[in-house]
Fold each of these.
Amino acid sequence: MRFAVIDIGTNTFHLIIAEFVYEKFELIYKTNVAVKLGEGKINQNLIIPLAFDRGINALKGFRKTIDEFNVDRLRATATSAVRSAKNGQDFVNAAKNEALIEIETITGEEEAELIYKSVKLSGAIKDLSLIMDIGGGSVEFILCDTQSLIWKKSYNIGAARLLQQFFKSDPISDDDKNAILFHIQTQLQDLFEVCEKHQPQILIGSAGAFETFAELIIIKNNQNISIENIKTYDINYDDYIETTLRLLNSTHQQRTELPGLIPLRVDMIVIASLLTNYVLGRTKINQLKLSTYDLKMGVLASMI
């Protein structure tokens, strides 16, 4: 059987197609489109017309590919940008009518659960761990060990939201940094209470921004590793700190010239750096790992 998963994110739409044979699955196709569904008015809970049209056009393209691969089962999930938008249901309806794709808008709790499943599938969880997934609209945290999910929560502090609300300078100023940090510390108090109680020793970053951090470190160290071909990657803490300080002190133009940094993340990565550094500091964690498996792989696992 062939399964397809569409992950409708705030910044990027993903499509993966997998074939399931003899109790094993193999990815046979994957692609993504930088739709930027949250562009412009995510903090006003609105999908603007241009972003709306980009999203529907991307889904029409996905439908064509799905038909070409003769997919047996499809699951399309939408996250923060759609679930929080006043016209989110209009987008869901348009996707069904124009692209023949039925979208399931999942809650933040469901999103965190699926991220946990995906990271577990990657083999990244070896000990008591804090999983962090930085999306455009929301950030999910999951406390877990090799046996079970202990605690999970989704927060509306995604990179696109913080970017639009606070990022007004180039390079980012101390005032903008402080405004972001003040905002997130008020949001994440219960996260830090849970971490104080359980004391996880490692932070596992789920794809996205953490793939960018890893890519920048791999290029800097001339490592012969392709992110495309691995499930996990141990991120050296000192390399990570050096990389994020460079990102935080750089201009937009300087970041565009960095090999390994895709255009969509040129500014988002500054927000991701601030978020991750703050969480590491508050939780006193100094071990980092990348899981290249994220939400869509959790959705695939739940289907199979």
Note: DSSP finds twelve helices and eleven strands in the chain.
Amino acid sequence: MKTYEHMPYSPSIGNASKKPKWLAKLTPGYLLSHILLIVLSLFFIFPFYWIVTGAFKVQNVAVAIPPEWFPLEPTLDNFVSLFKNPVWRWTFNSFFIAAAEMVGICIVASMAGYVLAKKRFPGRAIIFTLFVAAMALPKQVILVPLFTMIADFGWIDHYKSLILPAIGWPFGIFLVKQFAQTLPGELLEAAKMDGCSELRLYYSIVLPLLKPALGALAIFTFINAWNDYFSQLIMIRSTPMMTLPLGVATLKGEYTTPYGVLMAGAAFASIPMIAIFLLFQKAFTQGITMGAVKG
């Protein structure tokens, strides 16, 4: 009978060929994709960096060539000049309009998206096709009839001229409809069998399930309403009714342009958008990823 001598087991021998997990990930494709993402991130962040640093530069430094990449002698004079204007009134107008549009669009889009996704009725496909077609329609195309209609209603230079026309945003209905298709139909049928009314079904079951999509839509809506300079320029006439983007644009002088003051205004105007994104970031990510599961 043959006998075998067993060598003592050494853990280093069995794991000699194994690489650490972090080292196994360092493939050429992994490195290339991350380098590309870093370069693109820097490319998109640089304008915001330039605005923030420019807000602390005096006029001659802000327009100097070669540029001063970082303010060596930072100053707050630009913010002092900025707040000599009714900036807080402009900020309130922007926030009120953006928040009202956000709430109104989320309510209307949740109802319409749910109905188009889960209800069966004649003409449903045609209605949804019209909404999709309306997404490709530039705002400038409907500007003249929209302005005429608002002028006939007497809404010029009023909050209603900006809030009410935006309530039926086609993109919002499209986004919620795509997400609502992923909702389990069995759950809705079970609620109906338990005697749940249509309004109770929407409020207690559908609306909570739509929170990820509504979070993403809230971010899109708020940013779009906050930066809607074109509509604000057409509908708003008086200085007290101006929004923050519109008011900052009026700070440009007739013969000179105070770049430092304009950059201070732009930096100040970006704070609410960043705050809204951070507030709804989790829901935004879920709404974008989960809404793409079904088309």
Note: The CA atoms of residues 92 and 243 lie 8 Å apart.
Amino acid sequence: MIPHPSAVVRALASAVAVTTLLAIASCSGDGDASQASDATATPLAARTSAPVPTRTSAPPRLTQAGAQAALITEEDLEGDWNQVKGAAAWGDTLLIGKVDVAQFLTSKANAADCQRLLDALYDDDLLGEPSGASALTGFEQGDSRLLYQVAAYNPVRLSASLAWLKTLPVKCDQFTATDAKGGKRTVQVTTASVPKQGDARQGLHVTVQGTANGEPATLTLDVAAVRVGNDAITVTAGGLAGGAHPSLELAVRTGAQRLKEVQSGKTPAAGPGRTG
């Protein structure tokens, strides 16, 4: 019996369909294997191509020789400033006094902060005790003085000291201190501008009205503290003749640059008027 043509066509179509499905299945299987291989290889490739983190070395500690090299000289200052010996023993007696605690009705802690300020100005440790090398120098111009200090500090304590200085114009805007003989002194503390040097900075303007040698006198001090890494510079300038803010700003700009050069292992450049 001869099959009907339509039956032959259907048989051929079925055979082609089966062959196509087998081919698709084969291709699909190869694709899955390829994808599986890629999936297995990708994490390894990613791990091998990832950048290796590098360790950053800690900045070198300030040495005593470095602290000395970072000090400014009279050639770094404009005017008639003369470098003098014995600056470590400076301390104006107008800064010696006991803060009147009764004046601080709302916060006795503020009285303690104001006492700390007076003591720190007299003892030249505005930022607290250095943790490493330190050096200081002093200059005189008439009745004015400029004290400059470079020192290494504990970074946490250094940040805390700068934050503390920032609060003083509010806590100690005006208060009274009493000397050993019962004499009254009026102290005023305001914020002062500081050149944008270093990593952090704070400036103060302090006046102390009292008597010196039996005569009315006013001590005026411009103060700046600048952090450069884990080290810092402090400048106190002024006297009975008034403040010395322009000289303080020049000392900060020059001094911060000198300290940076020392920290990077360089020898500070000579100041104006000096040969290298």
Note: Residues 1-29, 31-46 have pLDDT under 50 and may be disordered.
